[in-house]
What we know:
Blueprint: E1 4-7, E2 11-14, H1 21-29, H2 43-61, E3 65-70, E4 76-87, E5 90-99, H3 108-122, E6 128-134, H4 138-146, E7 150-155, E8 162-168
Antiparallel strand pairs: 1-2, 2-3, 3-4, 4-5, 6-8, 7-8
Amino acid sequence: MDNIMIETSRLILREFVPEDLAGLYYLYEESDTRFLEPLSENREEELEKLKSYIHYIYGFYGFGLWAVCLKENGRLIGRCGLQVEFIGDQGEYELGYMISGKYQRMGYAKEAVKGILEYAAEELEASRVILRIHTENQPSRNFAEQMGFHLSTQRLEKEPDVRLYVYDL
C-alpha cells in the first residue's frame, strides 16, 4: 500500500481512498459525533466530497485527515491527522482526531496522535500543533491535556464556545 503515512505498533494511518466511504459511515454511526461536521445523508454527494478531498488536500499539502486502521486486519477505526487552519492571519497545523466508540479507551488515539505529532515535527518541521475544542467537549479537553497540549489564553473571536489548545514541538 503506497498511501501509508504513519505506522505504529498497532496502527496504520493512511490516506483515505474512495472505497473507505462505507467504513466512514459505519465509523460515524458507532461514535459520538456531535462535535464533528456530519457526513451528508446523500452518499453520492459524500463520495464526491471525499474524492475532492483526496485530490486537492492530499495533492496540495501532502497530508490531511487520514484513515486510522488496525494493523492486524486493516479495519477502519478512526480518522486522524493534520489540516492547515488560519487563526486570524496565522496559518497553523491543526490536529483532528476521532476514534470509533467501539475502540476508545484502548490507547489507539494516544498512539495515533503521538505518531502525528512526530510527523509534524519531523516531516513538516512545525513549531507547534493546535487543537480547537468546544468547551462542552470535556473528554476531548481531558485527552488533549493528557497528550501534553496546554490551554491557550488566545480567544477565537468567531468561535466563542471553542478553546484553543497548543502543543509546542
